[in-house]
Amino acid sequence: MAQLLEGARKLGWVLFNAFLRFIFVFINNCVAIPSYCLYCILLQPLRIMDSRYFWHIEGIMFKWMLAMVSLWGWVAGYTVMEWGDDVRPLSEEEAMVIVNHQATGDVCTLMMCLQDKGTVVRKMMWLMDHVFKYTNFGLVSLIHGDFFIRQGKAYRDKQLIYLKDHLDRYYRSRDRKWIVLFPEGGFLRKRRETSQAFAKKNSLPPLTHVTLPRLGATQVILKTLGPQQENGSLGKEASTMHPSQSGSKPKGLQWVVDVTIAYPKARPMDIQTWIFGYRPPTVTHVHYRVYPIKEVPVETKPLTDWLYQRFVEKEDLLAHFYETGAFPPPKGQKEAVSRAMTLDPVRLCLIQSLAFASGYLWYSVLQYFYCCLF
């Protein structure tokens, strides 16, 4: 009987905590998202006079929005441990980021772990499924200039044309630096069986922890944003030096950042968990590997082989992680070193306070006009 009472007490506390978090997130969305949109509307004259400065301000507000999403997870004890290359020195360089995709929580994880990477978040463009356009955050992404891609063979060719047009119109004009995509084109649990059947049919390595990536969006991005092509590869003017050693910044993409996300016990975290916090405190592990753009081919067959090889490497990384609890060390090293990603709680609280203050300001303004009219 005592055990039943203790179990009921714990369940009650979990439900009460989830309810409080839901109220907090709900109010957060009702306050922060409208404020972001209203400020962007009011700043339209600035966009006409000096669009670069407008997108600078919008980028700061966008980073604050993503910081609030990070806060939801941080309060629940969801943190990130980073492995591999340090990408912070690349924050002012142009890069394409390829990420494995397991659940909706992958996006929240990226929002958190990129918060301390300089200007990356505010100068970033996301490629995401078109369904996200109809979520509460969809309007923010539309204003920011993210691209919503529709999956399926019936839409594939047109979507790639739309993507190229979108990049031509918005990437440079809004001073974007990093572009993030999930080449697998869907969640692991949904695509694994199809991917394994395709691999068997075409004598490709069978993958369990990732799926075979799709080429289309990656190739469009490389051809549209990369430097001048030479002999099927991206131009040699793309620097292979470390950004801190490079005196000049070549035009176009300079790096490919290969990101591998691993969850303890291979249990992906979805956005519902991130919001309600019903999973115990969890450390998500993120591995980075950086490739100079000149090493990346752009022609279909070589790029397909190169991209497949990256996901075979992801498979090996994840298999090692799930077996040992750590990623393998880089070549030439005996031990892999991890880095705890930390968020500044003072900054997070300040951003949250500004959001609520902004919401109260808009409420007061609207109430004043309502009283004047009625």
What is the radius of gyration computed over CA atoms, rounded to a whole number of angstroms? 22 Å
Helix proportion: 40-55%
Helix and strand content put the structural class at alpha/beta
Query: Order of strands side by side in the largest beta sheet?
Result: 4-3-5-2-8-9-1-10
Shape: globular
The arrangement of helices and strands along the chain is HHHEEHEHEHEHHEEEHEHEH
Strand content: 5-15%
Largest sheet composition:
8 strands, mixed
Distance between the termini: 61 Å
Q: Please report the total strand number as a whole number.
A: 10
Q: What's the overall average pLDDT, rounded?
A: 86
> Which residues form runs of ≥5 with pLDDT under 50?
236-250
- What's the helix count? 11
Secondary structure topology:
Layout: H1 2-42, H2 44-49, H3 51-75, E1 79-84, E2 95-99, H4 105-113, E3 124-129, H5 138-144, E4 147-149, H6 153-171, E5 178-181, H7 188-201, H8 216-225, E6 229-230, E7 233-234, E8 255-262, H9 271-276, E9 283-292, H10 300-324, E10 339-341, H11 345-373
Parallel strand pairs: 1-9, 2-5, 2-8, 3-4, 3-5
Antiparallel strand pairs: 1-10, 6-7, 8-9
Helix pairs in contact: 1-3, 1-11, 3-4, 6-8
